[in-house]
Amino acid sequence: MITQFFMAAGGVVAGYVAVGLAAALGKLVVGAVLRFRFDEFIFFMICVRKKKKGLSVGLCNPQPYISCRMLDPKDTNLRNLIYEAFSMATALFFTENVCIQLYGTKRLPHTPLTVAMSVVMAAYTLVLGVRLGVTQKRKNGDNASGMMRREYERCYHAVLSGEAPGELTIQEVPGTGKLTDRASYKKYLLLCYYRCLDSGDYDHVKTVMNELENYVPEKWLHSELAMLGEFVFYYVIIAPDEAMAKYYGKPFLEKMNDSEEVNVKRTFAYWLFFIEGDKGAALQIAMEALKEVKSYRLAGCQRMERRLLEALIKKIETTP
User: Fold this and answer.
1) What is the pTM of this model?
2) N or C: which end of the chain has fewer CB within 10 A?
3) 229 near 269, Cβ under 8 Å?
């Protein structure tokens, strides 16, 4: 019984991984055909991301899934539907192939491993199908949620491609209190924050951050480090409040570890100078970040990051 249990467990894992990889493969293939831009691939806790030049491979918070994200420069409903549908069709092809081999032609032996694998593949494929339907309904709807998701993906792709956030025209989303897709909404608000920060519209920055603060999680994830860092930066320099800066600073310092992201280092440098009063360390981190600006994956934010870092360096150098 113990042997059968472990065989079944292995089948569950194998089926789950097979469908996840099949769906990701479908996105990669059709994305390449339609000339989408690769953005991110996550395999549980391994993350591959597109940088300005090449790819970066690292670890992220353990995720209970396998995912691939590619961005459509044209962002049309038909192209996105084909992209998602092909991913679903690839996953379904692998699932049906295993099930037919097992139950139809009986070429695969009936063991706890193969039965568990086929059941999990069928169940996971069904989940992906439901998720595809829900995602398309949210994104293509004329309601606030659909508008927000479209705006976020359009603007995010523009920033990745090199357009400065301050030059973006972002359509404001009405009826935010009824939005259910909070994860995408927080990312949308963060882009609005970058647009205001880049253009120097600090009054609107405060409005955006007040709204974003309504969605602060009880426990921060590593994937939310960018947003957490901007809260620290906001309360350090834009709306100075040492108590609030330290409130967000504590989880920020715990999560940042040895992060090489430019925006994380920029926030840390401001923290070191204005909160801890450590000029030497602040100058060192700021200089390191300045050297890495040209390789920052959010190409459109490079000028903004360079400007903020140079301002801090000048402040440090002119402070007795």
Assistant:
1) 0.76
2) C
3) no
